[in-house]
Amino acid sequence: MIGRRELPEHFERWNRRWGAPYGKRPRHVLRRQALRFTFPRAVGPFGFQPDNSITRRFEYPWAFHAVPLRAGMRAVEIGGSLAGLQFALASAGVKVVNVDPGERATVGWPVNQASINRLNRAFRTDVELRNCFIEEAGLEAESFDLVYSISTIEHIPVTLLASILGEVNRILKPGGRCVLTVDLFLDLEPFSYETRNITGANIDIQWLVEQSGLDLEQGDPAELYGFPEFDPKGIMGNLFSYQYGTYYPSLAQAFVLVKRA
Q: What are phi and psi of 87, to 5 degrees?
């Protein structure tokens, strides 16, 4: 599916609770900046990664609610950086490993052990950072219930995706889920002649599913680029109902893959 402009009420409540997607906002901007670095709890866990697209107001609550959570579940977030989802999941009792190479990535963020430690102390969580690419992380086979990736896949060169998806399949338990959002750029094919912009490319989601070896459990093929049902004219004709990115012209495709037992 593509994220809508109108959110369900429980998504709105979730965003208010966690301050997603930009962090909680004191009235004065300068005061917010001071609080951000001095009193993290006042800003909330979503106040530390800059330049979030407005589409994240859909993506974060959708991802959190996409699969029912239980205390003791184990999850990997690919490219979690300093974003707040990892801390929201950990607060729900999920054991979270954030696998993020930081500034080594094609589009990277300044995330390191010191910053994660500080945020863990502030939010009373126990997120584990592996400051590397997922293939280097040494994660055990079939040991995770969940893998999350929020608007990260489209920034990775396509030549590297098959290896990453194979690693996702390897680490998921049978019955485990991969919760994904992938940006759909409106300035690239199939909406224009361009194939890549300054932030990434439109990924063929049907190809991605096939490469993963997982099955599509949630998601509308008519709203996932690459499937035969996908209709660019229909997407543009329905544009007003979607949450449209403000930082760059994009929509948020959302879907869940499952590893069959």
A: -80, -35
